[in-house]
């Protein structure tokens, strides 16, 4: 099997990236974290010093080459992974992701990256907009307390000094912005399987999704 597309959508901290990464590793799929791409553009916009509220000023992204490979995010072949989880990027990314111009640009990059490949892509609009014909669509979710706890641990592991209260506030705010925005809001795709991970481990969730992949006849081993 040459092409097989898995779309993983869900709110912040639902475990999308961790779970997608593990499945991609186990099954020899390519993993693409589209949130990292929105963060990379936000980081570059901050570096360029553009007016973040003015959609017109985002045309500079046409000059950039954004790629996601081996769980690393590159802008013009430079790994920007260590900058994109920064507080300033996190605070502004929902705004940047709300502009149709930015979204159209990244949707094109994402579709091209998936074409003809076995891909597991995670984000907010993958099953609805980027890969509407995906072979499998999963909507991952978990309650706000659990999602905040996971995000806090992830950030602390990366060396950021954060407390649970500020993470809950940040996630609540981003959930609201991502779900209420006009263009491609976070919604559950009609044909998605909803997986609530609140009481399940990463391993259990990975196994659950792998079963769905198997049922759809995806080729397992690596090529
Ligand atoms: O998954 P994340 O928290 O790293 O995503 C960062 C932001 O990017 C999130 O607040 C919403 C936005 N995003 C989006 O609008 N569409 C996507 N496909 C992925 C992320």
Would you spell out the secondary-structure blueprint of this structure?
Elements: E1 4-9, H1 16-27, E2 30-33, H2 34-48, E3 66-69, E4 72-75, E5 78-79, H3 87-96, H4 100-114, E6 118-123, H5 126-130, E7 136-141, H6 144-157, H7 164-180, E8 193-196, H8 202-215
Helix pairs in contact: 1-8, 2-3, 3-7, 6-7
The protein binds 2'-deoxycytidine-5'-monophosphate.
Bound molecules: 2'-deoxycytidine-5'-monophosphate
- Coarse morphology: globular
Residue share in helices? Answer: 40-55%
* pLDDT averaged over residues: 93
Biggest beta sheet attributes: 5 strands, parallel
Summed up, the helix count is 8
Can you offer a commentary on this structure?
- This protein has 223 residues and is α/β, with parallel strands linked by helices.
- The chain contains 8 helices and 8 strands, in the order βαβαβββααβαβααβα.
- It has helices spanning 16-27, 34-48, 87-96, 100-114, 126-130, 144-157, 164-180, 202-215, and strands at residues 4-9, 30-33, 66-69, 72-75, 78-79, 118-123, 136-141, 193-196.
- It has a 5-stranded parallel β-sheet, sandwiched between helices. Strands 3-4-5 form a 3-stranded antiparallel β-sheet, covered by helices on one side.
- A hairpin with a 2-residue loop joins β4 and β5 (78-79).
- The longest helix is centred in the last third of the chain and has 17 residues, at 164-180.
- The termini are close together.
- 41% of the residues are buried.
- 2'-deoxycytidine-5'-monophosphate is lined by residues 12, 34-35, 38-39, 93-94, 97, 123-125, 174, 178.
């Amino acid at each position: 099997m040459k092409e097989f597309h898995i779309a993983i959508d869900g709110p912040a901290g639902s475990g999308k990236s961790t779970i997608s990464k593990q499945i991609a590793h186990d099954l020899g799929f390519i993993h693409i974290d589209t949130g990292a791409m929105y963060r990379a553009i936000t980081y570059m916009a901050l570096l360029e010093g553009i007016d973040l509220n003015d959609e017109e000023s985002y045309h500079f992204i046409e000059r950039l080459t954004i790629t996601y490979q081996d769980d690393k995010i590159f802008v013009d072949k430079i790994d920007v992974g260590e900058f994109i989880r920064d507080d300033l990027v996190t605070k502004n990314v929902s705004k940047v992701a709300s502009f149709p111009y930015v979204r159209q640009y990244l949707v094109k990059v994402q579709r091209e990256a998936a074409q003809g490949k076995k891909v597991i892509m995670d984000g907010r609009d993958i099953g609805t907009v980027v890969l509407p014909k995906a072979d499998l669509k999963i909507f991952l979710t978990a309650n706000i307390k659990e999602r905040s706890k996971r995000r806090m641990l992830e950030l602390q592991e990366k060396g950021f000094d954060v407390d649970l209260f500020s993470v809950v506030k940040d996630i609540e705010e981003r959930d609201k912005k991502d779900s209420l925005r006009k263009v491609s809001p976070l919604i559950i795709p009609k044909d998605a399987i909803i997986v609530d991970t609140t009481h399940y481990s990463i391993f259990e969730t990975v196994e659950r999704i792998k079963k769905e992949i198997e049922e759809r006849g995806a080729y397992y081993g690596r090529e």
